[in-house]
Amino acid sequence: MGGTTMLSMFTRTQIIGAMARKGKATYVGSGKENSEKLNPILGGVIEVNPDALQQADVVDRERRAEAPGSCYGLHGIPVLLKDNIATKDKFNTTAGLFVLLGSVVPRDAGVVMKLRRAGAIILGKASLSELMDFRSLTAPEGWSARGGQGNNPYVLSASPCGSSSGSAISFAANMVAVSLGTETDGSILCPASSNSVVRIKPTVGLTSRAGVIPVTPRQDTIGPICGTVADAVYMLDAIVGFDHRDAKATRKASKYIPSGGYLKFLKKDGLEGKRIGIVRKPFFNFGNNSALSHAFENHFHTLKRKGAILVDSLQIANIEEILSYTASGEGVAALAEFKLSLNAYLRDLVASSVRSLADVIASMRKIRF
Fold it and tell me: Which branch of life, at top level (predicted)?
């Protein structure tokens, strides 16, 4: 991917320092430039903010004037949002559906409100597996009608995984400094792993789901996809907390947010004395893939050298049933909850050509792979 500005190779601290010298508009422009070059190949970005450079000019002026907060947090940092996270601006919020193009959301999603208050610039919307991978059991990972097929930047023929595929693809390909994804069942963890980036999947309710196109309120959560654990924690600190539009979940979870946030736990010796369970079956049985097995053994040794206590070959009773989408009952519950929660989201829209899951299904029948 030669010729691109390595925006995502910098940490938040490095970007903040460089922006103080060059201006934030330079780095927002780099993200847009990289997206224009690489996105036709990778399909990680579904839409770019036409006002991003103008907004970056504003925060540059705030920094020069030493406005309160202009040197801290996410001020001026360009952020990419998964396309199921609502923004009350010129963006569409579609979950990859053509039928939601032009729909009007009533307000920013709760996490977007927090990002804006922290000074972040919304650079664009990331592609995703359509309807958060809930379109069908056979749809390709990273595909949507609106965004097309998202591709893994390391191996174009490899799966980017989903459903937060574009958020991970775009960071891995240096198109954005930080991104946000959503997860119901592996949709942050899997794309981040497949595209070799860092992610945090927050406990349900730690981040508000208000204004996010849903699957199920029992499992949906919003979290950062970045290049370092530190950057992910900066993002997490910015988006956690109570939201009266997701009151039940966020009120309960907010009780456990540490005073002063999570940054204080970023310590070089943070693994010292920590007990980490290694569930080899079924997660680390690699069969004849000796290279993969060797790679993970090296990681385990690194954890030990850093002071972690590994509880090896940990066994979890009934793990096969727990992991089974059908045997666990997750599938039946999620399907019912998806219909109820999606209908509620669609009813809340200011303007939309669809107001129910039935309307969405009718539109999908016109589209074939």
Answer: Eukaryota
* Annotation marks residue 82 as catalytic: yes
Contacts of 267 by beta carbon, 8 Å cutoff, 6+ apart: none
Q: Which stretch of DSSP H or E encloses residue 123?
A: strand 121-126
Distance in angstroms (rounded) separating the CA atoms of residues 153 and 173? 6
Find out whether 202 and 244 touch, Cβ atoms under 8 Å: no
Point out the least confidently predicted range of 20-24, 69-73, 220-224, 287-291: 20-24
Both structure tokens of 112: 């977007």
> Which phi and psi angles does 45 have, rounded to 5°?
-115, 130
User: Of residues 30, 163, 170, 341, which has the active-site annotation?
Assistant: 163
Confirm if 4 and 87 have CB atoms less than 8 A apart: no
Check if 164 is active-site: no
Place of tokens 């980036």: 197
| pLDDT tops 50 at residue 289 | yes
Which of 244-252's residues contact partners 24+ apart within 8 Å by CB, and which partners?
A: 245/110, 245/208, 245/210, 245/211, 246/110, 246/205, 246/208, 246/209, 246/210, 248/205, 249/204, 249/205, 249/208, 249/209, 249/217, 250/110, 250/205, 250/206, 250/207, 250/208, 252/205
Cα angle: 365, vertex 39, 95; to 5 degrees: 35
Return d(Cα 297, Cα 292) in angstroms, integer. Answer: 9
| C-beta atoms surrounding 257 within 10 Å | 16
Catalytic residue among 103, 187, 194, 208: 187
Which residue out of 8, 24, 32, 82 is catalytically annotated? 82
Question: Is 24 among the residues known to form the active site?
Answer: no
Q: For residue 270, give every residue at least 6 positions away whose Cβ sits within 8 Å of its Cβ, in sequence order, or none.
A: none
User: Which residue has 């809930």 as its token pair?
Assistant: 134
Please state the pTM of the whole predicted model. Answer: 0.92
What is the distance between the alpha carbons of residues 315 and 277, in angstroms, rounded to a whole number?
Answer: 9
